[in-house]
Structure formats: C-alpha cells, structure tokens
Input
Amino acid sequence: MASTLTNPAAIKQIMNKYDFYFKKDLGQNFLIDGNIADKIASAPLFTGDEIAVEVGPGIGALTELLCEYAKEVIAVEIDPFALNMLRDLFATTDNISFVHSDILKVDLKELLSEYLDEPEKISVVSNLPYYITSPVILKFLESGIKFKNITVMLQKEVAKRLAAKVGTKDYSSFTIAVHYYAEVEYLFDVSRNVFMPAPNVDSAVIRMVPRKTPIIDIKDEETFFKTVRAGFAMRRKTLLNCLSTGFSLSKDDVKIIMANAGIAENARAESLTMEELGKLSDCVYDHFHK
Ligand code: SAM
Output
C-alpha cells in the first residue's frame, strides 16, 4: 500500500495551507518515501483486528497506512500545529484518535485502558523523534504491557547498539536494558535521503517483542540495573574500577564480589553476558544484605 502523504510536493502544499514549518527541536523529519513508509507500517505484521499506537504522526505518512492495517489507531503528537493539519487531513477517517501530548508524560495504562485485556493485540509504531529515542523505548518496555511488538525507526547507530552482541563495541548498558525486557530484531536500514528535511545520520528500523518470561532470574531488579549502569559507566576502565566507584566500595570488597560471581578480576563489562551480569548483580545484592 502506498502512502499519499509522502510526496514532497504534496507535503509542501499542505504545510503552506496550514502555515506549518518544521521544528528541529521536535525531531521533525518527515518520511518522503512511500515504499519505506509501507515497510515500516506493515512491520508489526497486523492481522486486521489490532490496535496501533503511533508516537509522533507528523503529517501522517505512517498514520494513513496504519489506519488501513489496524482496526484502530491512537496517535500521540506533541505539536499542536501538526495536530491542526492531521485533524483536517483525517477528518473522514473513523478509526483514528489523535492525542495531544508529550509521549513521555502519557500514562500508557490509562491511554490503553480499553485494550489492556488483550495487550498482544497492541503494537507500537513510530518514526521516533531522535532527541528522545531511548526514553521513549524504555517507557514502553518498562510499562510492563506485553505489547505484540514495538516497531520503531531510530538512528542507525542507536539501532546497532540495541542489536549488539556481547563483546562488541556497540554492546552497552542500553543494549542490556532493552534485551532484559524484549527480544530485538534489526529489520532494515533507511537512508537519510528519504526524509524532509534530511537529517545528517542514517536510520534503521527495529522490532522489539516484550518477553513473556524473564530472560534471567535475578534477586533484585534495582541492583541489576545499578550494577549494569556502574559497570558500563567508564568504558576505558575495568569492571573492578567501575564497580568500586559506582557502589563506593573498596577494591578488595569488589574483588570478593567478582570472585563470588566467577568473574575474572580484569574483566570489562562489555565482555559479560546477560547471565554473568545477573550473577554479578546477585553477588552485589548479597554483599549489601548480609
Ligand atoms: N511520523 C511522521 C513521519 O514518519 O513522517 C513524523 C516523524 S518525525 C521523525 C517525529 C514526530 O514526533 C514529529 O511529528 C514530532 O512533532 C513528534 N514528537 C516530537 N516529540 C514528541 C513527544 N515528546 N511526544 C509526542 N510526539 C513528539
């Protein structure tokens, strides 16, 4: 299916009509390639009776297609000027609701209350505003809602971090956080040339499927995330130094914790698997609760 809201001349005409201008600080880079828009909008693999939640509809390039693929679409947009255009452009579409809000301030459980008895029928889709990529992703994952999937376009560099394997330079605390909550698939790359205005980085689309059962068994989530953040806080330093600084512990104490977890003294956080980080965080937890 092709989007009619990706044609640059049509976009300019609509923008003129509504006196709309791009706001860089809101990450407004609109898609101008109908095929790419369709690849993204169809990536959640909608079955026809599902709900799509879109973050940042902009001028509606993806929204138009989502209204075809999903039973209902809920689109959250922060920019009142974009909403002004959207409400007019979609005036005769009856399966869309626009919500004027900052996605980071939305209560997701309240927004989706009508649909939460079947969360596996809700997918999140977005060409994300790049300035809030990580907090938006974490907000959806940390909500605990078992979405069918969360399919987003984001900077290629961040997408690579999300899909990174242990031991690689892209493996980071963000990789761990996202993998803790979801299975991640790197779907495809998108050139910077299919946006108006063109950003100065390329993009990629990833699909995250929230886990139904935890990937690791840990004693305490807060200690796990604190251990991960501390471990990755200083890339050039060893895990021993990072944990000593992060938890204000003596190196001797950290050596004991690492030995209990079966981790070598000279290890670096990026060399540890999820299971090893889990074991390490359990040993940190035990140290503070003995
Ligand atoms: N979906 C459109 C497309 O693909 O062409 C526009 C995508 S554009 C990269 C990001 C959109 O997110 C813009 O419409 C912008 O106004 C909106 N946005 C920015 N910050 C937001 C926030 N905090 N909450 C909701 N929408 C936001």
